[in-house]
Every structure is written in C-alpha cells, then in structure tokens.
Amino acid sequence: MSAAPASVARNATILVMDSGGRMRILRKGTNGFSCMPDNPATPGPDPMCMDSNAMEWVMAWVGHKAPPPGRVGFMYMLAGGTDASNTDPYAQKPLPSNHWVKTGPHVMVVGADASFYDLYPKSAKPDTSVPYVMWAGTPYQHLMIPIR
After folding, report:
1. Kind of pairing, strands 106-110 and 73-77?
2. Is residue 144 within 8 Å of residue 131, measured between CB atoms?
3. 90 contacts: CB under 8 Å, gap ≥ 6
4. d(Cα 54, Cα 51) in Å, to the nearest integer?
5. pTM flag (> 0.85)
6. CA 9 to chain centre
7. Residues 78-91: pLDDT tens digits?
C-alpha cells in the first residue's frame, strides 16, 4: 500500500504474485486499483499500485505476451523501485549492456501509442530526474515520471 497515495491504497485490492506470475488476492478492493508489495521477478522490493489497464499490461509483461492494444494504464510506485535495466524488460542483474538505472518515487504511464512515447527522451542512460521512456522500442515501453 506504500506505493500509492493513502486515498487510493485504502480501497485497493491487495495482491501477491508468486514466482510463476500467478496472483493471489489478500484483500478485495472497491476502487479499481490493485496494489502489490513486490514482483518476485525483480531483484528487490518494488511495491506498485495500478489501475486495471496497467494490471493487464503488467500481466502481459510477466507472461511474455503482447500488452493489450489501446489500453492506457496508470501506475504508482511512490516508494520507488529496485534498480532495473532501462533497456531489457527481463534483465535479472546489471551487465554493461543493459543500462541499469536507479529509480526513486515515480508514476508510470503504460500501454500508450508508440507516438506518445516519441515525445519523451529514450536514452539508454536516462536522466532519471525528468520524465523518460523505459524499455524503449519494446512492447513494454512506458513513461517514467519522477516524483520528487
């Protein structure tokens, strides 16, 4: 619940994901948002809270499937996230080729048209203090918007 504003988290569904990508509901919510304390596929804690479109996007990413077209989603990660590759959606550890970045508190826009992302920087080594596109050029590209 630390990923979103309290006004969102208090009525969100709380889910946990196992290492196979299967979800278990800990608490059913009423506001259309779902919060997860962590994604076991990432190297450390990264709580997130997302609307239903973003949840579909996350499930597509975790399942190595194409995200649903035309479904823009919004995600909170106000507690920040663990370091991750900025170029490889499935990187497990930092390598010279996968441009690991440190992310602080941020929100994300996922599932938008490719032309939307063309409005923002797509550098492999981004300035994480301003909005930028993570995983540019992949089906999972998304806008990272830092909250400072």
Report:
1. antiparallel
2. yes
3. 64
4. 5
5. yes
6. 16
7. 988 777 889 999 88
* 83-89, Cβ contacts within 8 angstroms, sequence gap of 24 or more: 83/43, 83/44, 84/42, 84/43, 84/134, 86/124, 86/125, 86/126, 86/134, 86/135, 87/124, 87/135, 87/136, 88/135, 89/61, 89/135, 89/138, 89/140
Domain map (residue ranges) of the chain: 6-146
Residue 23's identity, in one-letter code, is: M
Spatial contact of 79 and 105, defined as CB atoms under 8 Å apart: yes
What are φ and ψ of residue 101, in 5° steps?
-130, 155
Taking the CA atoms of the chain, what radius of gyration do you get in angstroms? 14
Asked whether 34 and 55 are in contact (CB, 8 A), the reply is yes
Q: What is the pLDDT of residues 3-61, one digit of tens each?
A: 999 999 999 999 998 777 788 999 999 999 999 987 666 667 789 999 999 999 998 99
Q: Is 130 exposed, middle or buried (0-12, 13-18, 19+ CB in 10 A)?
A: exposed
Amino acid at 47: P
